[in-house]
Amino acid sequence: MKERLSDRVNSIQPSPTIAITTKANQMKADGLNVIGFGAGEPDFDTPDHIKYAAIAGLVKGNTKYTPADGMVALKDAIIHKFKRDNGLTFARNQITVNVGAKHTLFNIYMALLNPGDEVIIPAPYWVSYPDMALMCDAVPVFVDTREEDNFSMTPDMLEKAITPKTKFVVLNNPSNPTGAGYSKEALEALAAVIVKHDLICISDEIYEKLTYGDFKFVSIASLGEEIRKRTIIVNGLSKEWAMTGWRIGYAAGDPAIISAIGKIQSQSTTNPTSFAQDGAIAALLGPQEKIQEFVKAFDERRTYIVERFNTIPGLSCIYPNGAFYVFPNIAKIFGKKTAEGKVIKDSSDFADYLLAEALVAIVPGIAFGAEGFMRLSYAMSMKAIIEGMDRIEAAVRKLS
Length: 400
Ligand code: PMP
Ligand code: GLU
Hints:
Layout lengths: L6 H4 L5 H14 L5 E2 L11 H13 L11 H15 L8 E4 L2 H12 L5 E6 L4 H8 L3 E6 L10 H7 L4 E7 L11 H13 L3 E5 L20 H6 E6 L12 E4 L2 H12 L7 H12 L3 H21 L15 E2 L20 H12 L1 E2 L1 E2 L9 E4 L4 H16 L3
Parallel strand pairs: 1-10, 3-4, 3-5, 5-6, 6-7
Antiparallel strand pairs: 2-8, 7-8, 9-12, 11-12
Helix pairs in contact: 3-11, 4-11, 5-6, 5-10, 12-14, 13-14
The structure holds 4'-deoxy-4'-aminopyridoxal-5'-phosphate and glutamic acid.
């Protein structure tokens, strides 16, 4: 039956981040002591008040279909969140709720892209941005950023990538996989280009709350009326509230695009799970302090892991501004040999070597369109991070 599969499905890869996490989990289930830096998923549990809100929803009988694009009470909670956190005012017809932010993005791509349209994606990029474009017969156009620029796309780089076929630009601030964040000034400069060319900006702000040090998150949509009109903000509960399994994401922006997303959803999932929406309301309207506890723990891990990388010969790592990933530079390892005589040629070889030699799972930079790097998620216990870093260091020191 393989030959009967669609060109569409043959044009994409399985999500590498999910694939590596699944492989590491399988090895663990087989009794191997694998340390998984692969999954971009908080190790914390969802806070109790959110779980109880979902249970209360179930008990009350919120067990039926909801409106396709989300319950009115959840839309109002999202409107409240945007006002409180971003100073942005939205009406209900500008909000849609979906089955995780990944699904929000998928719906947006489906709603906006015609075959041949181009999507500008700064690299390193999160793995799903290009493949979603391919699924819509659209063309991902990559803009390579540089480590020395904190992996940021400059207005010049953006301008050069624009063609008459450009439909939208995807910005992920702070970024998965690099953790890099854009300053207000950098966003203003990008916004000017987006407005000048009358493009749409898809601003994926799912790591908005997970920021460190002096970095201050600003939503590009809050930088003026012209850019606000052209921006669709994507956000979700998975990361900041440790709710990955709940599958609630949302978007805010132009009513026509938001309504198109609702139409697509009404013909696909019908609606996001009813009682998960009750939990989401509690997360958005309830006490917000817990997030600061998560951030503090992530920050300690971030500092530790960056410092460790910078003491391992051949590796170096810049401090991420946000999210829970580090993206160390591993290019100096290339050309070295393992004890068995195998040459490490690229990030995939290095990932294979770490898994076989050290039982450590990481994601090779090439999965994010950036050879010469690797991604580690530090959303795991400090104990596991220390053990994992010891193993990585020992494995690197064995190379000659
Ligand atoms: N955007 C980015 C940048 C992400 O890292 C993720 C994590 N998977 C998502 C969107 C989607 O998150 P979710 O579907 O769990 O809401
Ligand atoms: N966003 C997370 C990651 O990049 C979860 C996996 C996925 O959705 O790709 O690891």
